[in-house]
């Protein structure tokens, strides 16, 4: 009786869906399971390379790419897209690998790279920002589109917005950046109340109100004192939600 593992034809589809959604941690887990099973189809291996490149893990991606290249010479594997190979070449520091790629018109970052050697990383096109606080610091969910190909995605920033993020589009593998300046400009346009002086004053007033009731009285239970910081987090979330829900709607967006 044969013990050869059966291939899983849907594994490549699951990897692709997770990658395009930006769920790279989930996709990396799927890749590990796929490789350990020994039942990966050539199409699934190709998708695994795409996931690893998008996640910034070029070492394993190069090993899988070598396997795919050998299989492709026998006509048994798909050929990876130029943008995947170009990003992989840049990640491993071997720009010479770019010379064998066909000249392309899209995506924009690869066309620029082939034309003048510049790996463009323009600002991420922010479309929305949501704030949640659950048992700790704030989590900011940013949604928007790739500046190179328009692919929509979402990702999270934790603790604060004073950041600079360099990311990769999981669809076209082009670089982008997210900066505090861009986030602040978006907030000023969409949710100006969050940056207004009265928001900070209201936040401070709420915190002081709770502090006076819960922390300054001598008969406050110890558990309430221990929860003091959690109340700060909760009040921040309540205030942020109220300000964001009360912001004036943008043209073309529901109120």
Brief characterization of the structure:
With 255 residues, the chain is of the alpha+beta class. The protein has helices at residues 11-20, 24-37, 42-54, 58-73, 82-91, 108-116, 180-190, 197-214, 222-226, 228-245, and strands at 125-133, 138-145, 152-158, 164-168, 175-179.
What does this structure look like?
This protein has 255 residues and is of the alpha+beta class. Helix content is 49%, strand content 13%. A three-stranded antiparallel β-sheet has the order 1-2-3. A two-stranded antiparallel ribbon has the order 4-5. Residues 1-9 and 247-255 have low confidence and may be disordered.
The averaged pLDDT comes out at: 79
Intertermini distance: 64 Å
Q: Count of helical segments?
A: 10
Work out the strand percent. 5-15%
Number of strands: 5
Low-confidence stretches: 1-9, 247-255
Strand order of the largest sheet: 1-2-3
Overall outline: elongated
Helix-strand category: alpha+beta
User: What order do the helices and strands follow?
Assistant: HHHHHHEEEEEHHHH
- Calculate Rg over CA atoms: 24 Å
Largest sheet: 3 strands, antiparallel
Helix amount: 40-55%
């Amino acid at each position: 009786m044969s013990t050869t593992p059966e291939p899983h034809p849907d594994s490549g589809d699951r990897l692709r869906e997770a990658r395009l959604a930006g769920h790279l941690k989930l996709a990396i887990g799927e890749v590990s399971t796929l490789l350990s099973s020994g039942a990966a189809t050539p199409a699934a291996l190709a998708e695994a390379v795409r996931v690893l490149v998008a996640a910034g893990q070029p070492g394993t991606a190069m090993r899988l790419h070598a396997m795919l290249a050998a299989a492709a010479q026998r006509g048994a594997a798909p050929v990876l897209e130029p943008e995947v190979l170009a990003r992989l070449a840049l990640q491993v520091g071997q720009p010479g690998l770019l010379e064998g790629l066909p000249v392309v018109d899209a995506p924009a970052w690869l066309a620029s790279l082939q034309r003048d050697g510049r790996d463009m990383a323009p600002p991420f096109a922010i479309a929305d920002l949501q704030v949640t606080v659950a048992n700790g610091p704030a989590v900011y969910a940013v949604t928007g589109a790739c500046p190179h190909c328009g692919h929509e995605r979402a990702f999270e920033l934790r603790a604060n917005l004073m950041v600079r993020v360099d990311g990769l589009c999981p669809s076209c593998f082009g670089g982008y950046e997210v900066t505090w300046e861009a986030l602040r400009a978006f907030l000023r346009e969409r949710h100006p109340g969050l940056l207004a002086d009265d928001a900070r004053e209201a936040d401070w007033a709420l915190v002081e109100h709770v502090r006076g009731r819960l922390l300054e009285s001598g008969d406050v239970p110890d558990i309430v004192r221990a929860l003091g910081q959690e109340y700060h987090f909760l009040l921040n979330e309540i205030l942020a939600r109220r300000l964001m829900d009360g912001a004036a709607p943008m043209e073309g967006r529901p109120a």
